[in-house]
Amino acid sequence: MTMDRIALPYGEVWVACDDEDNVMSAAVWMLPSVAAPASVLHEISSAQAMLEGSRHNASVEAEACVARMRPISPHYYLGAVGTRHDRQRLGLGTAVLTPILNRADRENQSVFLETSAPENVPFYAGLGFIAISETDIPDGGPHVWAMLRERPPLA
């Protein structure tokens, strides 16, 4: 739902596939120059609430917590990235992240993400991100790191 209503029309999705075109890794990016219209966000909100069921209020609260950590200036936003478990540590995650990281550098743009997996923090640090904030999501939610990859210095 989110992929076809938000990420594909208003962002970019990068994938790494095997020889049979099976997706092994994917990254979902939101762009600094494009925002999903409020009407689209409103359209998917009821479907999201239905999917989240009894956890919907917790999801809304978690989103509010992480939203406070996001930069207000335009930036590339990594909404999600994932690699099949049996294909991790082969460079596929880096492969789906690098095109946008390179573009951000060329455009002198910052890149932002959140992660709740402690093992991801050093991975992202290796790509130039620094943890700028962290928080615990209320009611037993995860610990979340906000990470920023600053604009490169102008030459």
Number of domains: 1
CATH class: Alpha Beta
**Percentage beta strand:** 25-35%
Q: What is the radius of gyration computed over CA atoms, rounded to a whole number of angstroms?
A: 16 Å
CATH topology: Aminopeptidase
Q: How does CATH name the architecture?
A: 3-Layer(aba) Sandwich
Q: Helix share of residues?
A: 25-40%
First-to-last CA distance: 41 Å
Order of strands across the widest beta sheet? 1-2-3-4-6-5
Quickly count the helices: 5
Per CATH, the superfamily is Gcn5-related N-acetyltransferase (GNAT)
Average pLDDT works out at: 88
Supply the helix-strand structural class: alpha+beta
Q: How can the largest sheet be summarized?
A: 6 strands, mixed
Spatial shape:
globular
Unreliable runs: none
DSSP summary, beta strand count: 6
What sequence of helices (H) and strands (E) makes up the elements?
Answer: HEEHHEHEHEE
